[in-house]
Amino acid sequence: MDTYQNKDQQSETNFEEMRDLAIKQLKSGKSLTGEGGVFAPLLKQFLDSALEAEMEAHLRKEKQSDKKNKRNGKRKKTVKTSAGKVELITPQDRENSFQPEIVPKRSTVLADSLSAKITALYAKGMSLRDISEYIEDMYDTKVSAQTLSSIVDKILPEVKAWQNRDLKSVYPIVWMDAFHFKVRGEDGRVTSRAVYNVLALDEEGKKELIGMYVSESEGAKFWLNVLTHLKNRGVEDILIACTDNLKGFSEAIQSIFPKTEIQKCVIHQIRNSTKYVASKDQKEFMKDLKLVYKATTKEVAETELGNLKNKWGGKYPVVIESWERNWEELTHYFQYDTHIRKMIYTTNAVEGFHRQVRKITKTKGAFTNDNALLKLIYLAYMNISKKWTSAVQNWGITAQQLRIHFGDRMPMDI
């Protein structure tokens, strides 16, 4: 009985000492979890005990397998944690087969303590140098840029798995577009990279980035590879594809998904047109052009295009010819109600996603390599997509109209 009373008294004394030290550190403004903080010894005690327990479990398992493995002393190891540097006593075994999980071999940063924080900061666009300074300020711990880079690199397998994950068989609407970044090659030269993105609405009306790929430049040939990859991952049908006016893009889509209805981006067509209209004519030309793409029906739009041609065709024949050549793929949106038209007559949905990514990457100069580019865009997407939990507005009505237009190709659980 006296023994238990002595232990209780000792525990109470230790608690009182920790409490008094905690109050003192709080009043002085010192972090309780930083280096020298009151909770740092508790973390060391917990980790040392956990490593001992892991070793015991490992040796029991070895014994059950008739292996004559035994302990072989201990080794000191320093790891960086949110409580500062902690010196651990790691048990060793003769066969060197012990692989601790809580603090893995060769790990110098406690993953559960700092790695998630480091990756989150990187996802917000902070440089490795800025993250290093932040960690030192917040946790009284120095972490080199090389260590930080190795921590962030751990998400690469996750990125690759995400890029190759299985997809749904049908996507009612997809938007396809690329945006560009600078990457520094091994020879030190800075080159441009096109990041191809495929943003989709699934049958529930929820957004999903179903494809992200990096290439040296944007072209219909690479888009063909993208579309083939989507099909190999399980996509059997796309109802409406919204694209820019890249030459050969439509042919690439229909070679893989021949039934897909292609809606070329009207805004891209307008931008391309105004480049070839003299500045003194642009205001009046745009006023007349607006009557075309803002028409209530396709028939009215065709009439207005005729008027545009009569007025401006002599002065800007190439511009008018471009509208006539792409007319069918520019005007599919006239078949639908207003809220569907707004969704599909431009690639604004995917461009909006690109603008959000740019907010994260704007502090970057040239990326060190393609993987560094992929990592940051993937992490940015994971943050952005947290808000994509609900269907887009008016999806119930949209789904019904798509079902009427496309029949059984549009899946609906009714």
Automatic annotation (TrEMBL):
Point to the regions of Basic residues compositional bias: 68-79
Q: What does this protein do?
A: Required for the transposition of the insertion element.
Tell me the GO BP annotations in alphabetical order: DNA transposition
Region (Disordered) residue ranges read 59-82
Q: What is the lineage of its organism?
A: Bacteria, Pseudomonadati, Bacteroidota, Cytophagia, Cytophagales
For this UniProt record, the keywords arranged alphabetically read as follows:
DNA recombination, DNA-binding, Transposable element, Transposition
Name by which UniProt lists this protein: Mutator family transposase
Record organism: Persicobacter diffluens
This protein's record includes keyword DNA-binding: yes
In the record, the note on similarity to other proteins reads:
Belongs to the transposase mutator family.
